[in-house]
Amino acid sequence: MHLKLRQKRRPRQPRDGAETLPRRCNPLIYRWLARRDTAARRIEKLAADVHLCSVDKYGESTAVHKKVLIVDDSPAEVKLIEGLLEKEGYWPIGLHDPKRVEETIANERPSVILLDVVMPDRNGFQICRDLKGNAEFNMIPVILVTSKDTASDKYWGQQQGADGYVTKPFTREDLLRAVRRFA
Asked: Measured on CA atoms in the order 124, 128, 131, 133, is the torsion positive or negative?
């Protein structure tokens, strides 16, 4: 992953660059991004837009999207969370079958896992415990997204190795705060 910073050079600017700013630009931010070159008596402006890029094997750079695995037996819930995350620039991967979690993680390599607790065959606590016990997957943050909101449920989730806990119904801000914290 590379960090690119674009540079723009303008010949001969006034001593205080804030005098030539558009009205919507904050002078304090501009001064922080500007650097004086005393020899040439000009200001070298560093652009504020920073891009996360990765260079693939063909030398082309592409934007990096953080993958988020969503494991829930309810297709409607998966669609809802996918829609929220896509708008924020994440790459959501929905999974309805809790038996295929490890296989999907091995193939997709997500940055974060959003995991429902109440599911058939294998509940979220069991999956979380299995993932945290596996040396290959234990570094991936797991956020439990569930309707179980008692203190004992949160404590039990923490004991199973969950990194975060979001209760349903959740707000957009609650979910994004939890994902941003770990992604």
From this structure: negative
Looking only at the bridges linking them, the beta strands covering 67-71 and 112-115 are parallel
Q: Is the dihedral of CA 146, 88, 29, 63 positive or negative?
A: positive
Nearest residue to 92 via CA among 110, 119, 118:
110
> What CA–CA distance (Å, rounded) separates 60 from 134?
34
Single pTM value for the model: 0.65
Return the HEC string of 68-124: EEEECCCHHHHHHHHHHHHHCCCEEEEECCHHHHHHHHHHHCCCEEEECCCCCCCCH
**How far from the centroid of its chain's Cα atoms is residue 122's Cα?**
27
Instruction: Read off the pLDDT of residues 35-77 as tens digits, 9 standing for 90 and up.
Output: 444 444 444 443 333 334 444 444 444 455 799 999 999 999 9
- For 90-135, the pLDDT digits (tens) are 999 999 999 999 999 999 999 999 999 999 989 999 999 999 999 9
Can you tell me the distance from the alpha carbon of 104 to that of 181, in angstroms, rounded to the nearest whole number? 23
Instruction: Name the residue ranges covered by the structural domains of the chain.
Output: 2-55, 65-182
CB 30 within 8 A of CB 24: no
Domain 65-182 = CATH 3.20.20.140:
no
pLDDT value at residue 48: 34
